[in-house]
């Protein structure tokens, strides 16, 4: 079974702190994604990566950066956390293969910024 | 601009009856559609998908219908069970860039009452 793990299930940080969220997948997937989920807004793509050290902005990249130094690991960084970044953060990964579409998700990190 | 829309934030159904969840999209280039199910404090899990060349796909109690002319898809759950109570997200893929990116709707919370 594909497994996507996230470093923390719950996190509480203070405004202005630097926050690292880490995601690891064990199926050698090329592409990895970071989303945030907010009520009424669904899942919104923050950043994605299609290879080691390669990244592209999603729909809401402001206030975030990412790092992918190894294929299995994709980190989301909040340089200076703000209260409007309180959210559920979800990591996902997928193969790039003709006809293959499913993204596999981690359990999520519930981040609260005080 | 929301390319994938789920206009019903919530749906309540009696156990044993049919649940119908709807999703509309605007981009005619979408070539694949997926439904995900999400329980609280867990990541979304893949439920069922359909290619744009088909109009129906069935998997057990779950059937997805696609109406391309109306740019509309629906998920039918028959019979509904209390364990189906969750948030359901529809998602669409446009594979022009082969990134594996999905665009998600806002989600519909389904409650199945015993």
Walkthrough of the structure:
By secondary structure, chain A is an all-beta fold. Helix content of chain A is 0%, strand content 56%. Chain A contains no helices and 11 strands. In chain A, the strands form 2 sheets. In chain A, strands 2, 4, 5, 6, 9, 10 and 11 form a 7-stranded mixed β-sheet that branches. In chain A, β5 and β6 (54-57) form a beta hairpin. With 114 residues, chain B is an all-beta fold. Chain B has no helices and 11 strands. Chain B has strands at residues 4-5, 10-14, 19-25, 32-38, 45-51, 56-59, 62-67, 72-77, 86-93, 102-104, 108-113. In chain B, strands 2, 4, 5, 9, 10 and 11 form a 6-stranded mixed β-sheet that branches. In chain B, strands 1-3-8-7-6 form a 5-stranded antiparallel β-sheet, with no helix packed on it. Chain B is globular. Chains A and B meet through β4, β5, β9 and β10 of A and β4, β5, β9 and β10 of B.
Which helices and strands occur, and which strands form pairs?
The complex is a heterodimer of chains A (114) and B (114).
Chain A lengths: L3 E3 L3 E4 L5 E7 L5 E8 L3 E10 L2 E4 L6 E7 L2 E6 L8 E8 L9 E2 L3 E5 L1
Parallel strand pairs in A: 2-11
Antiparallel strand pairs in A: 1-3, 3-8, 4-5, 4-9, 5-6, 7-8, 9-10, 9-11
Chain B lengths: L3 E2 L4 E5 L4 E7 L6 E7 L6 E7 L4 E4 L2 E6 L4 E6 L8 E8 L8 E3 L3 E6 L1
Indicate the multimeric state: heterodimer
Roughly how many Å apart are the termini of chain A?
37 Å
Overall SS class of chain A? mainly beta
Largest interface: A-B, 29 and 25 residues
Structure summary, number of beta strands of chain B:
11
In brief, what are we looking at here?
The complex is a heterodimer of chains A (114) and B (114). With 114 residues, chain A is mainly beta.
Write a concise keyword list for the protein shown above.
heterodimer; A: 114 residues; mainly beta; seven-stranded mixed beta sheet; four-stranded antiparallel beta sheet; 56% strand; globular; B: 114 residues; six-stranded mixed beta sheet; five-stranded antiparallel beta sheet; 11 strands; 0% helix; 54% strand
């Amino acid at each position: 079974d594909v497994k996507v793990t996230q470093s923390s299930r719950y996190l509480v940080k203070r405004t202005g702190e630097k926050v690292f969220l880490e995601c690891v997948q064990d199926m050698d997937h090329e592409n990895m994604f970071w989303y945030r989920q907010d009520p009424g807004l669904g899942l919104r793509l923050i950043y994605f990566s299609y290879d080691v050290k390669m990244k592209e902005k999603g729909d809401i990249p402001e206030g975030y950066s990412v790092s992918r130094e190894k294929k299995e690991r994709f980190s989301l960084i909040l340089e200076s956390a703000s209260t409007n970044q309180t959210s559920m953060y979800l990591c996902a990964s997928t193969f790039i293969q003709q006809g293959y579409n499913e993204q596999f998700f981690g359990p999520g990190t519930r981040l609260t910024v005080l | 601009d929301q390319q994938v829309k789920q206009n019903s934030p919530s749906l309540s159904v009696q156990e044993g009856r049919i649940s119908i969840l709807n999703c509309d999209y605007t981009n005619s280039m979408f070539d694949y559609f997926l439904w995900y199910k999400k329980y609280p404090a867990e990541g979304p899990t893949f439920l069922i998908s359909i290619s744009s060349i088909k109009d129906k796909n069935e998997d057990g109690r779950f059937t997805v219908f696609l109406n391309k002319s109306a740019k509309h898809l629906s998920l039918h759950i028959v019979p509904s069970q209390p364990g189906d109570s969750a948030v359901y997200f529809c998602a669409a893929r446009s594979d022009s860039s082969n990134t594996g990116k999905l665009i998600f709707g806002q989600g519909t919370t389904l409650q199945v009452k015993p």
